[in-house]
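Example record for the data management plan.
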Amino acid sequence: MSSILKPVQTDETTTLAQQEPLTTAAEQTDGFHLVIDALKANDVDTIYGLVGIPITDLARMAQAEGLRFIGFRHEANAVNAAAIAGYLTKKPGIAMTVSAPGFLNGLVALANATVNCFPMIMISGSSEREIVDLAQGDYEELDQLNAAKPYVKASFRINHVEDIGIAVARAIRAAVSGRPGGVYLDVPAKLLGQAMDAAAGKKSIVKVVDPAPAQIPAPEAITRALDVLKNAKRPVIMLGKGASYAQADADIRAFVEKTGIPYLAMSMAKGLLPDNHPQAAIAARSYALKEADCVMLIGARLNWLLSHGKGPTWGGKDHKDWADKKFVQIDISAQEMDSNVPIDAPLAGDIGSTIAALLKEIEQSGFDKPDAAWTGAIKEKSDANVAKMAKTLSSKSSPMNFMTALSAMRDVLKTRPDICLVNEGANTLDLARSVIDMYEPRKRLDSGTWGVMGIGMGYAIGAAVTTGKPVVALEGDSAFGFSGMEVETICRYNLPVTVVIFNNNGVYKGNDVNPTGGADPAPTVFVKGARYDKMMEAFGGIGANVTTPEELSKALTEGIASGKPTLINVVIDENAGTESGRIAHLNPQSAAKKK
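Corresponding structural encoding:
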């Protein structure tokens, strides 16, 4: 139990830290300490946040009680750090923000965590409910609880100090059970100063038991799924980040290898099996999706990233028709089934339990591997595409284009499969996930389901703090701008993060011009020749400006080896790049041009 305090008469400016300790029978505790006690009781060891009214003292006390507080320069980046910590650990990451503007700053990242199914809790200080309800104009007044509800899995407010323990427990269980997601916990300023008997306070703390209970699929669902797979002539397995989150790595690999089915991986599932595995069909993705007669989805959703399971991507006639395929889907949410196309064999359950049940059934009944004609066709297509890619990567350009720079990075990162790679941008993201192979699970962290920019520095910091391992953040220059000030945070905590910025002077590329001939730059153009490396140097880190693949290889190798905050400004041809990367068709003007 944290320190006990004697209630004293204070004015509104007196902080809890100024109150007098007491060891008599009249021992009391308060909301500050009970929040900390509740987090510690549930094995929380790190908080990501940004201090201010009314949570500054809460952050100080948390640090005094042994919790690590990582302070950021913007709330969105703190919430992103907590979200990726939740993904990597399967425990809810904890973010803390101030009221109203701070809460709103963090809300996009909180919504992104929910969409991506990352377990996390954002705790925000807030105005008193009675003042908000009467719109009486409190400091940073906002009905935060209801503002959060549309964007989170659950939203709670604590009004009484004796409810802190159960509220934190509810938030933890909501974040990690079933389909994980973001949770909002509203903490009014007045609550933190409320006092209660220390012994009763200690009893009010709840240690959550089995917060994410196993959800085991029905035996008949297992049999049905295997029957569909056994009857398929050209099956494919699609691994999503849900499969990576499950941390059932050994069983998933065993299932893929025992069935002999070729597999594809969504970007954050890369490395669940190494990208150079003999059953990997990643280099033949388009061919595999079009030609497959059965697709098994493991922790992957048929959303926009998979063209909703319809249309030309899947061999269908148009966007309204799905191809003549069978679908097997493992998802912890039964509601996900049939979201876009009919699912012939739904497996509603957690991935670990479901894969274990499938493996047990295979061991008992056997499983014939796919025909060699199918696996051979995929290998032939893969080999051809790999050879084509190798030719592209081997070509040199001056100044560098994206592929020239990625080739240099790929060769360095191949020697360090333990490194977490954070990746965001348009061309920088789309091309990197095709070029840079991953060999270990949960080592690739990117924009995910929403495709949101600005996750870079938050994810990099969260990954470095959580894993203790080196992190490389590969950023487009536009994407970096959303969170670039956090290089100071990286330096302040001396984190082993190497930031690599592909700098082509603009959004997508830097060669656009103002059609009026006026002095203002075009909407997509940045300052020419910007030196982002100087930002890292300004805060005591290592900076490098590179213009050749050799310089990039050297700087990246040295940056990783140093274990120090490093930023490499990679000069890319400003003519290189495609608008919107590989999703230009989503731009109305681009779509109109195709008609």
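Summary line stored alongside the record: The chain has a mean pLDDT of 93.
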